[in-house]
Structures are given as C-alpha cells and as structure tokens.
Amino acid sequence: MTATDDRATTGRYDPESTLRLRVPAPRGPHLAPGYTFDEITRADWVLGRVPDRGWSAAPSPRRTLVSRALLACLLLAQAVLSLRLHNSAFEDEALYVYAGHAMIDHLFHGAPDYGGFDTYFSGSPALYPVLAAWVDSAAGLTGVRLMSLAFMLGATGLLYSLTRTLFNERAALLAAGIFAVTQSTLFLGNFATYDAMSLSLLALTAWLLVRNATGHWALPLAVAPVAALAVGVKYASALYLPTLALLLMLVAYRRLGTREAVRRGAVFTAGTVLLLGIALLSTDYLQAIQSTTTERAHGTTSVGLLVRDSVRWGGLLSLLACLGTVLYTRRPGLGEIPGHRPPPAPPRGWRIALGTVLTGTALLAPAYQIHLQTSISLHKHIGYGLLFAAPMAGVGLSRLMGAHLRFPQAVIAVGVLALTFGMSQSAQNYGVWPDTGRLIPELAKNVRPGQKWLGQPHEGPVYYLSDRGLTDYTLWTSIFYIDYAGRKGRHLSGPEGYRAAIQDGYFDGIVLDWSDQPGDIQTLIRQEMRSTGRYRLASALTYRTSVGSGHFEIWLRLPAAHTS
Amino acid sequence: MTAVGRRAALRWALASVAASAGCAPSRTAPIGAGGEGGERRTAPYVPFDVTWLIRPRQGRKYLGVSFGGASVTPGYLDLWSRKAGKAPNLLAQRFSWGEEFPADRVTAVWRQRILPYLAWEPRGRTLREIAAGVDDGHVRRTAEAVRDLNVPVALAFAPGMNERGLPWGPRAASAGEFVAAWRHLHDLFQDTGVSNVVWTWSPTVTARPAVPLEPYWPGDAYADWLGLTGRYGTDGPRTYDGLFGPVVKEARAFTRAPVLVAGTAAPAGGRKAAVVKDLTRAVTTRDDVVGFVWVDATDRTDWRIDSSTGALDAFRRGVADPRFGFDVRRP
C-alpha cells in the first residue's frame, strides 16, 4: 500500500466529508460470533492488519501465559484485600483452635476428652480444628489465618480452571475476578474457621469432577472422598453435593450421552453417600449435625432483613450470573475469531440446565437461612453458592464486554462496584466483633492459674491466656450454660444457677460484654453482682465496632475483708 | 540492565511502595480494616485502674486537704505543702449539680500527683428527680467526661445526706430516695463504661439528731469508701475514737469498706495540737482507715493547720510518718 492510498483509507481531513452525516458501514456477510452489538464506525474506517497469533483458536503458550499472569495479579489483589482486614480472634476462631489443641492432646497424648466439642461443633472437631491447632503451634493465629488465605486463593484458582474448562479463558478470568473481590471471599481469606477449607474442598471436588467427567466411569468414585471430606470439615457443605452431582452429569452428558452421565452421577453420589454413612456410623456426630445444621434452632430475624443482606452480599454476582445464563442460553458461541469454525455448540436445553444449576446454587444458603430465620454466618455461607454461580457471572461479564473487548467500560463499572462492595462489606463484617486486643492484657493481670471465671466473651481469653499457662477451658463458664453444684445436693442451671453462683462468690472474676443491647443473662448477672456486693467493677474497656460501641467489664470478687 | 530497564524497575519499585502504603492501615481506615473509622475516638483504650487506690498497699495513707471546697492555684498548694512539711496526695473540691465536669481543674490537680476528690452536691434538684432520670443527660455527659479524662476521681455524691440542714438531708429526702438516686447515678456511670471512679459514701458524723445510717448505705458494689466528715469542737470528743468511733462501729454492722476521714478540722485553741496528734496516730495505726482530709479554712473560727505554732508542729510531726503522702500515680 502506498503512502497516498494509506492516507485515503485512514481518512484525511476533509471538511465536507467530516461534516457529512455518517452512515454506518454495511454489515458484512459473516457476523463475528459473540458479536451482540451493532457497531457504528466511520464509513471510511477499516480494521488494520491483525497478527495471526492474536486470532489463533488453538491453545498456545502465549495465551496460557497471559491468562495465568492475569490470574496471578487477581490472586495477589485478593490476598492483599484479605490481609488488609484486621481484628482479634473471633470467638469461633479461638474456640476451634483451642478445641484443636484439646483434640491433639486427646487423640495423640491420651488426655481426657473434656470438651464435648463433637456434640455442638458444626464440623468434625478431629479435622479442621486439629489442622488449625497444629498450624497455630507453629505460627500462631496469623498462621492459621494465612492457611485460610491459601485455601481461598486455591478456591479462586480452581474456579478459574473450572470455568476455563467449561467456557474459555476470558470468562474464567472474569469469574475469578468477580469471585475474588466478593466480601465472603475476602472475609474467609483471613478467618480461621472451617469455611475456607470446606469451600476450597468443594471447589476442588467440582474441578476434579469437571476435568474427569469424560474419563473412565469409575473416576468420580475417586473424587467422592474429597467431597466427603468437605462435608466432614463442615457439615453444611452437604447442601452443595447435589450441585456437584448435577454438574458432573451435565458435563458428562454433553460428550457421552444420558446413560453415561447418569452412571457417573450415580457412582459419585453413591460413593459420597457411602463414605458419609460410614463416617456417621463410626462417630457420634449425628447429634451435632442435627443441632447445628439440619435441625438448627429457628431464629427471629425477619425475612426482609435476610433478603436485604443476601442482596447486599451476593446480589451483584447473582445478577451477573443470571445475565450470563440468559445470554448464554440465547447464544452459545463465545469465540470471536473470524473464519474460525467453533466446535458444535451445546444444545439449548443443556445451556439452560448448566446456567440454572450453577446460578441457582447461589440461592441455596440464603433460602435455607430464610427458612431458619437466622442471620448467623450468612455473610460466610453466601460465599459457597457464589463459588458455583461465579462461572456464569464470568460469562455474563464477558458478554457485557462484547467481542474484541469492545465495551470495557461496562465491565470496569461493574468491577469497580464489586470491588467497592467487597472491600467495604468485608471490612464491616470483619469489624463486627469487638477487638479483644486490650482486654486480654488486662485480664492477664487478674487471671491466676486455677481461678474460676464466668464470662462472655470467654473463647478469646481462653485461647490467648491458656497460651501463657494462666487458665484453661474447664475453668470458664459461659453465659449460655451453667450447671452449678455449689449448694448441697442441688444442681442449678439457667438463671438460678448464675444467681446462686454469684451469691456464693463462686467465680473469682467475671467478664461481660456490655453493648447497647445486652442479653437477659448479662443483665441478670450484672444486677446480681450489684445487689449482692460480692464483686466490684475493676475495669471497663470501651470499644467500637463497625456496627456500634460498647465496653468490656472485668468484675473481681471483693476480698473477704471487704464484704460484710 | 539498560537505562530503560532501570527506569522501569524503579517505576515498579515506586509503584509497589505506593501500593503498600495505600494498603497499610491508617487511623481513618474502616473498623475491621485496621483503622478506627471516620469518627474520632475520645474514650481511653485502657482505663486507669483505681482498685489499688481504694486500699493502698503496705498501709500507706492519704494526706488530704480541702480549702473549704474551693479550687486553688498550684502556688497556694505549694505554700500549704511547705507549711505542712509534706505535699498532700488528695485534694477535696466541690462540684455543683448542673455544672459541666471541671476537666481542666481535675487534670491540673492530677498533674501534681494528687488524687482529685469531688463532693458532688445535688443543689437545685431533689434526689427523687435524680433517681427518676430527670437529669440523665447531664449525668451521662459527666460520666463520659470522667471516662475520657481517664484519671482516677473520688466522687462523693450528696455528702452529708444525714444532715438535716442540707437540701438533700433527711428533711428533704428519705433514705430510700438517696439510695435510689445513688444507684441510678452509679449505674449510669457503669453503663457509660466508667471504671475510674472511687465511690465515696459520705455521712456527717456530727449530724444532730443522729439518724440510722444503714438505710442510707447503697451496697458494697456501689460504694468503696466510708468518707466520714466531722469537725472537732471546742468541747466534746477530742479523739478519733470519740468523734468517728460510734459511726464506724455502726457502719461495721453493714459494711467492711475502708474509712477515709473525708473532712475534719479542729478549731483554734489549746487542745488543737492534741487532737491533731491523736488523729494522725489513729489514721496510721488503723488498718481500715486509709487517710484523712484536713479542712484548711477559716469561717467562724480558724481551722487551718497553722492557727498556732503548737498545732502546726503537731501536724508536721504527725504527717511526717512515711506512710502519708504516697505517690498516687504508682501502685
């Protein structure tokens, strides 16, 4: 092409043609696949020459490298945003790690099992707590939280790989990106409970199933232990087993047909159920599973509030997943390479089924919690469903952006929104419990080995103070349960138990968390301490949380000479 | 590395430093992300522990002074310290109901290593109204001010509640109303997160006619000191046992709280030196007495320590005991 021609095609400034009404270029005979928006361009504009490698549909090292580099950036951002969260041990974290130490002593050193953790934990106390305690011995709570971060980064990585297998790199990166900045992901990445481990095991199960769906029919049996482990780590993960089985069947169906898909689904389900059955029969976790998961006590949170929270925390991703499902149902093609003949598109029914299964899973946790009318841990549980809905959200975002990254502004806007929501909501949820950073040193001044204490919070103090040899779990009574046997021949529980124990000066000290809305038992304990005169407030440590303020109170028993 | 490469590396290094600085928690970062949110925090993180001040260790005693409840300049206090031969470690002042908490005055006292003691007189409000919560806003503001100041304060609410002449005395309010008002005040302070107050229950031992004190006692969880006040006369009791003994004996029937002689003095005269000598001896020898406050004022008579050379010498000799005047800032 000569210099003159070049000027003619790229458009030299010409006042007449510049001011002329622009007419869209006539549509070519071959519309690029995945090309959903009509393009308005200057009449005299043509696409420049594109290097061949940019259009290759074949897998190439360059594409893999670029995708993985972008994924690494996403994981780095996720890690930084998770590590930005800062607070002392939440009561569950402290309890699980402490329980893990007790379980290690029990399992490996023959100490008596005094905790009874298997009766009220929502996951097996012999799995995550033991692992957490082991990490805690080496690297403290920070180490345990870093382990959670590793699990969540693993989950994001597996989500990427899973989505790439189901769709393509772009959808996978977008899915990983939107999942990485949701508040549940950021929160769980710095939170030492079962959830991160269980969620990453679910992601691993899904990944293994999708990767091996078209392999030998018995392969899903090898994945069953991973699924069973996920359920063992946290019982509520069982809610997602049907999704995993359906996903396996859908992926198998596409290549192998109905018979093989059902066969694989049945094998996986049977294997998992068998393993869980064996685990259930060989342990006595059934009561705990019933009380914490299947027959959990109903709360009093209003449906409106639960819906509002669900929308706040998972609404954006779910909406994108719905969009992805609709757009994917309408048009299967995701490629944009002119002239490339893509493999035959999956049937419409399959596309609807895949979109519905994945997107619908996001609704499981909110629906179950609305049924129970409890908001406890909803901000964590919602993340499980979002993991499954994320691939469809990735497709939705990819379609929103259009072919050739034509409309990046829409995705940038959604991304900024997701990032803002994720950062602010994760910080708020991480700041809900009061920081015990100042309370523990104050308690350490007063708690002496062998002393009996009552209080809320007590998990944090037990965790931090037992490390210094000042106390242990058996010396603390919670404000939820008391069995006071201090009076001859009588076991007192509930309010009567607390009242009698305080009147008798049974406890050496009492810790209370006094906020604007104290519970009945806290009010009763405080009133009893004031009226009996056996205790004096030694220290009130004010705190602020992301949702309000309050103060911790440390009450000490008055020395005998001071009482009447 | 080429010049371009070096420049790129430098740019990346600067960018990573800037990114790290951006991620580092700042004070205004949200609560939960290492900050304290946008709102400024005024309350202390760790409150001053007053429990050891209630019963000072190793039998140490408070040497307190009151200039008729008025506030004084540091210079005036120094003058008194030179006269007494020892600096006081407790200063009693008056704090009127409805007045904003005198944070500056209290801080100035504390800076001189003196425990501020405030006699909170509920003038202009009945005890019944206070108990009913009419002035809860004022009480809460005061509680917040005390909490945020984070220095120990001894607070004597409605001192002399058994004196008929006072607006909150037995003629104006019943013992039940006094206890209700006290508990209401105390509970509001605790609800606000205040733990740096030493609650001083302060009857007058010379009140006539004497009323039973037990109905006035709000409870061991509500009061820390028996802050007994009473001045010696030109006749009548001339010893600690004579003046305070009967009331201490009566109080021991319902509490074992330590005694602070929260305001006493002897009139100018021949027996002043003997009174002072007996008082300081009684305070130092009794385990359940934590100190005394001398009312260094002149009204009808000269109550000051230096009303005569003999009295001053007796005072100086009495308070020279090393147990008097300990550092209230260190346990």
From TrEMBL, chain A:
The keyword Ligase does not apply. Keywords: Cell membrane, Glycosyltransferase, Membrane, Transferase, Transmembrane, Transmembrane helix. It is a multi-pass membrane protein. The keyword Transmembrane applies. It is found in: Cell membrane. GO terms for cellular component: plasma membrane. One of its GO terms (molecular function) is pentosyltransferase activity. GO terms for biological process: lipopolysaccharide biosynthetic process; response to iron(III) ion. The chain crosses the membrane at residues 65-85, 138-159, 171-188, 217-233, 239-256, 268-290, 310-329, 350-370, 382-400. Residues 141-257 form the Glycosyltransferase RgtA/B/C/D-like domain. It holds the Pfam family PMT_2. This is Glycosyltransferase RgtA/B/C/D-like domain-containing protein. It comes from Streptomyces griseoviridis.
Automatic annotation (TrEMBL), chain B:
InterPro entries: GH (IPR017853), GH26_dom (IPR022790), Glyco_hydro_26 (IPR000805). The keyword Membrane does not apply. Residues 41-328 form the GH26 domain. Pfam families: Glyco_hydro_26 (PF02156). Keywords: Glycosidase, Hydrolase, Signal. The keyword Signal applies. Residues 1-21 form the signal peptide. Gene3D superfamilies: Glycosidases (3.20.20.80). Belongs to the glycosyl hydrolase 26 family. This is GH26 domain-containing protein.
